[in-house]
Design brief:
The complex is a heterodimer of chains A (about 140) and B (about 400). With about 140 residues, chain A is mainly β. Chain A folds into two domains: about 45 residues, no CATH class; about 80 residues, OB fold (Dihydrolipoamide Acetyltransferase, E2P), CATH 2.40.50. Chain A is about 5% helix and about 35% strand. Chain A is built from one helix and eight strands; from the N terminus they run αββββββββ. Chain A has a five-stranded antiparallel β-sheet with strand order 6-5-4-7-8, with no helix packed on it. In chain A, strands 2-1-3 form a three-stranded antiparallel β-sheet, covered by helices on one side. The termini of chain A are far apart. Chain B is of the alpha/beta class and about 400 residues long. Chain B has a single domain, classed as Peroxisomal Thiolase, Chain A, domain 1 (3-Layer(aba) Sandwich). In chain B, α2 crosses α4. Chain B is globular, with a radius of gyration of 19 Å. The chains are: A mainly beta (about 140), B alpha/beta (about 400). At the A-B interface, β4, β5 and β6 of A face α6, α7 and β5 of B.
């Protein structure tokens, strides 16, 4: 009997983030890669899924610099946030760290990294954090 | 079977329903006035405009857009609003589609009349926002985005539209000045609207030098946090003459959805849901973009108006920036857009916005828009977007 897999969903995704891994779901039926992972394939509706680890490398598609931030992020402002297209295909939104604001360019190569020490809270409404940095 | 039924119900260009009256509360910072009281104010205007209507007898149902119960700690909004507007015991339904909540209500109201179940319904919307701090209001608005994957990464609502602006600037060379021109135009229009929240003009210089909220968007690229309510009364086209000599017909209605997270989308320079909703509405109306005389588009942020020009087919993709520069969409231009002042200057009480657009077009198409009247306006279009584009409705109206 196959070993039980973690449930495909938000909490497993962030539990892996806490372990320093970017994990998505791949549909065994149609090959769709879902990041964040979902319990049912949104392309073919199959529940026959497996976990895959993504390298986390990709290109910046667009970005903004948040000046007026929500309360919990106020201390960080101004901070950049962008959408990255990962080499494996999926797109993910995250903060960008480790690069000066005026050096951020659409198309630049970024890679995912994980906040350390990681939060041990992996349930709603707080989870461990990932972010993007220059490759 | 379904397509046959559709053809019968929706003959191209045939009025789906008729609007026989409309009402709008004063938009603004309405200290001490609650959502239900704002709504009653809008409803009373609609009744005053339509003396042939017997509200207690004629209005069979209420569909009302309302985004968030967080503002007033008040749920069960459908009957609450019906109660205070004197509409009970008619069926009362609250609809939620973020900033498109009342665009959705309008569409459901149309469907309810088209189904044959009701002869006369009221659709509307309301939001009471300004008694909350800006931080609280911003937090409630952000709930329309993806919490675990957007908000958790420090994303804000202006931030999402800033991501679209950066992408549009990168792909098409759209400039911050072109964005600012949208604000200048809409404030110019809003200054002519006695019900607008901010009835004053702004200069290009003021808009461009206002403080950064989410680069490249500045304060004057953002719409206003506003209190307000709106409504329109719908009936079957064959009954319209019973209530008014000057009805406005709804000839096209479209709605579509998209991924809740902006990051999941294939493109950030266009809203697929809005394009699809427009395609449905144009097909139903048998109309083309160049036949539209006046439009209200969802300018929650200036970039959203530029993208709307492109998504509604008023210009080609990438040419929205040029279109605002050329003055085409200013009053007196070929296609005046957001004559009400839009969300930018009239204000954006989110739940009220969709039917507030319908209200403005009702005035325009019945020649009652006073200082902001577009000459001989016959066809109007309303484009209402929820969140960062996960919901969109488009409606096309025609002078009766």
């Amino acid at each position: 009997m196959a070993e039980a897999q973690p449930t495909f969903g938000i909490e497993s995704f962030y539990k892996f983030v806490g372990e320093g891994k970017l994990m998505g779901a791949k549909c065994n039926k149609c090959g769709e890669v879902m990041l964040p992972p979902r319990p049912v394939c949104t392309n073919c509706y199959s529940k026959d899924l497996r976990w895959i680890e993504l390298k986390g490398n990709g290109k910046l598609l667009t970005y903004t610099v948040i000046h007026v931030a929500p309360k919990q992020f106020e201390a960080l402002a101004p901070y950049p946030v962008g959408i990255v297209k990962l080499d494996e295909g999926p797109q993910l939104l995250g903060m960008i760290r480790g690069v000066e604001l005026d050096k951020i360019k659409v198309g630049m190569s970024l890679t995912v990294d994980f906040e350390k020490p990681s939060s041990t809270q992996t349930q709603w409404p707080t989870w461990p954090k990932y972010y993007f940095k220059p490759q | 079977m379904l397509s046959l039924l559709k053809e019968e119900l929706l003959m191209v260009g045939k009025p789906l329903v008729s609007i026989v009256s409309a009402g709008l509360s004063k938009f603004g910072k309405r200290d001490g006035v609650y959502a239900r009281e704002l709504f009653a104010e809008a409803v009373s205007e609609a009744f005053e405009r339509c003396p042939n209507l017997n509200p207690k007898k004629d209005i069979e149902a209420l569909f009302v857009g309302h985004m968030s119960e967080s503002y007033e700690h008040q749920g069960h909004t459908g009957p609450t609003l019906a109660d205070w507007a004197g509409l009970t015991p008619s069926a009362a339904v609250r609809t939620e589609g973020a900033c498109a909540s009342s665009g959705v209500a309008l569409r459901l109201g149309i469907m309810s009349v088209l189904s044959g179940l009701y002869d006369v319904v009221m659709v509307g919307g309301v939001e009471k926002m300004t008694h909350r701090s800006t931080a609280e209001a911003t937090e409630y608005l952000a709930m329309a985005s993806d919490y675990p994957f957007e908000q958790w990464n420090g994303m804000t609502f202006p931030g999402l539209f800033a991501l679209m602006a950066t992408a549009h600037m990168h792909k098409y060379g759209t400039t911050e000045q072109q964005l600012a021109l949208v604000a200048v135009k809409n404030h110019k229009h809003g200054a002519l609207n006695p019900k607008a929240h901010m009835q004053k003009e702004v200069t290009l210089e003021q808009a461009l030098t206002s403080r950064v909220i989410a680069w490249p968007l500045k304060l004057f690229d953002c719409s206003l946090i506003t209190d307000g309510a709106s409504c329109v009364i719908l009936t079957k086209p064959e009954l319209a003459q019973k209530f008014t000599d000057t009805p406005v017909h709804v000839v096209g209605s479209g709605q579509a959805s998209d991924a809740i997270g902006l990051y999941e989308r294939e493109e950030f320079t266009s809203l697929r849901a809005a394009r699809l909703a427009a395609q449905q509405a144009y097909e139903m109306a048998g109309a083309k973009p160049d036949e539209v005389d006046v439009a209200e588009v969802h300018d929650c942020f200036t970039i959203a108006e530029i993208i709307a020009y492109e998504d509604m087919g008023f210009c080609k993709p990438g040419e929205g920036g040029k279109m605002i520069e050329e003055g085409v969409t200013t009053l007196g231009g070929r296609l005046p857009i957001n004559t009400s002042g839009g969300l930018k200057s009239k204000g954006h009480p989110v739940g009220a916005t969709g039917t507030a657009q319908a209200y403005e077009l009702f005035l325009q198409l019945t020649g009652q828009a006073e200082k902001r009247q577009v000459d001989d306006a016959e066809i109007g279009l309303a484009h209402n977007v929820g969140g960062s584009g996960a919901t969109a409705t488009v409606h096309i109206f025609k002078r009766g």
